[in-house]
């Protein structure tokens, strides 16, 4: 009898824990900066959603871009901020997700932008003057699933007639955009690829050390998606909240709000392969 009693207690405790767990939402992001920077950048948005939804939001940073896609596919996250290329890949692979909205980020001039550019950069002190000069040089990418840190710069190199796999020197995958800038300023690489937000927020003295060799077309910013397991009514609610969000802060790289974009803008990124 005592065994049955304790089993019942354990059962109801499990149900209680499960119900509590379901009240929280797991929010995952790409690891394009270090964890603390990402946590700070998303803090206002998370607080806003928690208050409006009356749910705790558990914030996690994936190990890499591919890992985030795996978490989404397996239903281990509820909502996610996902890079443009990764979102296009998820659609190509027919991974069921719900598009919520596209980020609007404040630039260095105080404007809220929903798109950005990929830059290929070098130091002013280096002899590299044109994109063609990177042949045989040490080059830094971020991650193979990064739109601005790999996909677009590789496309720009190919347009210049450079085979990134054969004609670059030593190639490094440094994962995070700030690490590309750091490696360049420390002379660990000769050139590298970053998104323009990193360059635009550099101190004037460091910006003057940088030469831009190439700039991409505009790229739509990261998207917020919901995984397949999220209730449709909750998906609609979160989308409405995102589109109504307006940051009270004012600083470069602040998440200012969201807007809806045509998904064709993301699908076209697949043709840059």
From TrEMBL:
<dbReference type="GO" id="GO:0043190">
    <property type="term" value="C:ATP-binding cassette (ABC) transporter complex"/>
</dbReference>
<keyword id="KW-0732">Signal</keyword>
<dbReference type="GO" id="GO:0055085">
    <property type="term" value="P:transmembrane transport"/>
</dbReference>
<protein>
    <submittedName>
        <fullName>Phosphate/phosphite/phosphonate ABC transporters, periplasmic binding protein</fullName>
    </submittedName>
</protein>
<feature type="signal peptide">
    <location>
        <begin position="1"/>
        <end position="21"/>
    </location>
</feature>
<dbReference type="InterPro" id="IPR005770">
    <property type="entry name" value="PhnD"/>
</dbReference>
<comment type="similarity">
    <text>Belongs to the phosphate/phosphite/phosphonate binding protein family.</text>
</comment>
<dbReference type="Pfam" id="PF12974">
    <property type="entry name" value="Phosphonate-bd"/>
</dbReference>
């Amino acid at each position: 009898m005592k065994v049955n009693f304790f089993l019942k207690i354990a059962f109801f405790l499990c149900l209680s824990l499960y119900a509590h767990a379901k009240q929280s939402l797991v929010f995952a992001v790409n690891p394009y900066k270090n964890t603390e920077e990402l946590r700070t950048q998303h803090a206002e948005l998370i607080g806003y959603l928690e208050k409006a939804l009356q749910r705790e939001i558990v914030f996690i940073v994936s190990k890499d871009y591919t890992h985030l896609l795996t978490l989404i596919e397996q239903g281990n996250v509820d909502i996610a901020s996902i890079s443009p290329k990764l979102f296009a890949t998820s659609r190509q692979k027919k991974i069921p997700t719900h598009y919520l909205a596209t980020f609007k980020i404040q630039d260095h001039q105080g404007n809220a932008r929903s798109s950005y550019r990929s830059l290929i950069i070098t130091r002013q002190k280096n002899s590299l003057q044109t994109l063609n000069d990177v042949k045989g040089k040490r080059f830094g990418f971020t991650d193979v699933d990064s739109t601005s840190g790999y996909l677009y710069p590789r496309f720009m190199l190919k347009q210049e007639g450079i085979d990134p796999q054969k004609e670059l020197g030593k190639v490094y995958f440094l994962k995070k955009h700030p690490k590309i800038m750091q490696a360049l300023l420390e002379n660990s690489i000769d050139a590298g690829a970053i998104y323009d937000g990193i360059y635009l927020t550099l101190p004037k003295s460091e910006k003057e050390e940088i030469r831009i060799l190439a700039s991409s077309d505009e790229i739509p910013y990261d998207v917020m998606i919901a995984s397949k397991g999220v209730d449709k009514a909750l998906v609609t609610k979160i989308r409405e909240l995102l589109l109504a969000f307006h940051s009270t802060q004012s600083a470069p790289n602040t998440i200012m709000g969201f807007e809806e974009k045509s998904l064709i803008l993301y699908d076209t990124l697949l043709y840059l392969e």
